[in-house]
Amino acid sequence: MNILSSLLRNxxxxxIAMVVVMSxxxxxxxxxxxxxxxxxxxxxxxxxxxxxxxxxxxTKPQWTxxxxxxxxxxxxxxFLVDQAIWLDNRPQPGAPATKAGSGQSGFYVLxxxxxxxxxxxxxxxxxxxxxxxxxxxxALPPIxxxxxxxxxxxxxxxxxxxxxxxxxxxAGGNSPxxxxxxxxxxxxxxxxxxxxxxxxxxxxxxxxxxxxxxNWTAAASGVERHYAYAFQWFALALSAFLFWLIHGLLRIRQxxxx
Length: 258
What we know:
By secondary structure, the protein is of the alpha/beta class. It has helices at 2-10, 12-50, 65-68, 185-192, 223-257; strands at residues 55-56, 72-79, 85-91, 105-115, 121-131, 150-157, 178-180, 195-203. The protein folds into 2 domains: 2-39 and 223-257; 52-203, no CATH class. It is built from 5 helices and 8 strands; from the N terminus they run ααβαββββββαβα.
């Protein structure tokens, strides 16, 4: 206790620096742990929601996001192929973590789906991911879209993952190919004057062999990374304390020998 008191009393500036570094390290480590816990909680909630029986969107004309969020959905109808939107700069789903900039970028294919028996009611479907042509941005990957009446299954989400965009992100142009950064459901409803379900169906399953990838990343993805970051921050805090302690003890030893 006398040695510790001496260290605190005689080394004010190093002590303050140690406390600051330890506070930053512990605080950042706890924040990373809380983010990991949040992802685990979200994944557990999602798993419980998906375990429920699927909702049939054809059973009524009006649905809310609260009813469908993270729920399995089934719907019958047909794709409106000529109204497709290609969301640019999307990473390949399910790809392993790589160094920044080394992963393959591509498109999320968004397509409106007209519900059977409801002539003017549509829901936007996030059909899957396709690779981007590195040499020609407008060269879209070949995909197959089944024609006629279909029954598809997916999970309800508020909207596709958003990315940073400048201006309108390319939306609203007259090009027959609509490549843009994000999907704005409100603007699409105003643009087409149709009755639009206020959420997106993220399609699952690969039975159609349509050339799109749908191995969507799980909600808990990245938990290990948060744990690794937390360990680094806690290690920084511990290192700061040990450096302060050992350096202080050496100084006291040198002073005693004199």
